[in-house]
Design goal:
Blueprint (H helix, E strand, L loop, with lengths): L1 E3 L5 E3 L3 H13 L4 E6 L2 E7 L4 E6 L6 H15 L2 E6 H6 L1 H22 L1
Parallel strand pairs: 5-6
Antiparallel strand pairs: 1-2, 3-4, 4-5
Helix pairs in contact: 1-4
Length: 116
């Protein structure tokens, strides 16, 4: 959803699913950014310390083929990993989402340590 701010500038309002994902990320305790620009894209969430992009996908807004092309471009340009989570999983199984994200972070930390 998009609304206008008091100054007339366009301001995006988070969806329910993005709010739920934000709560998951806050509980994990790592720094993250919402609606982060990785030119020419804007990703739902970005964890800079681990170079992880997280997309909270709803059935209505996401087209798999388009997302796949964008993900490949993001991985190539920015060397990030892109995780997609469907809205139903975020709403009904946030503990599983938390474990999945933590596992990805642990894997990142392991490979960074191994390379040193």
């Amino acid at each position: 959803m998009v609304v206008l701010s008091m100054t007339g500038r366009i301001k995006r309002v988070a969806t329910d699913i993005e709010i739920a994902m934000s709560e998951v990320l806050t509980r994990l305790g790592y720094r993250y950014y919402e609606q982060y620009e990785l030119f020419p894209y804007i990703v739902d969430f970005y964890l800079p310390e681990f170079k992880i992009v997280i997309e909270a996908d709803g059935d209505v807004w996401h087209a798999y083929q388009r997302d796949r092309k964008r993900d490949i471009d993001l991985m190539s340009r920015y060397k990030v990993r892109v995780l997609h989570f469907w809205d139903e999983a975020i709403k009904k199984r946030p503990e599983c989402i938390t474990k999945s994200i933590q596992a990805e972070i642990d894997m990142t930390s392991y490979y960074e340590y191994k390379e040193k």
